[in-house]
Every structure is written in structure tokens, then in C-alpha cells.
Amino acid sequence: MGRMEIKTISEYNYRKGQKNGYIIITDKPLKRAIIHRTTCPNLEERYLKQKVIDNNNKYGNYFWITNTIEADELHAEWCLHCK
């Protein structure tokens, strides 16, 4: 399926409800990406709102992926909680 960018709160909430995927959050200033399981307690809607909606992706992006191969392409590191 590939990587899908998450651009809205409704899409984010839908993807968080998917138990078979992962969410990657990129951080442009730090030049890093973190991969989370969709059940991770560190994923909060307010962070998506701030990064994606309020700041128009200036500081990073949210992506939904179905397998960790996509995470490798972004050089994503595992969230410490999800590891």
C-alpha cells in the first residue's frame, strides 16, 4: 500500500483505530523520524494539530504505513514506548 500522509484530524483518528499499521512522525528541525504503533499512548491529537494543521507541516509530517519497511526508508527510529 505504501506510505500515506495524514493531513486531517479525522484521518489521524481513523488511522489510530487501525490495529495493523504504524504512524511515523517526522521532525524537520531535528532531521529525524519516530515510528509508533497505533496504540502508543504518546500519540496525541493535539500534537498532530500543532505540527500539521496549525503550522502547515513546517516542522514535520505524519504518515501512516502498513509495514516497517516504509519506516526504514525514512530512517525512522522506534518510539521508546513502542520498542
From TrEMBL:
This protein is called what?
Uncharacterized protein
Organism, by scientific name, is: Paenibacillus filicis
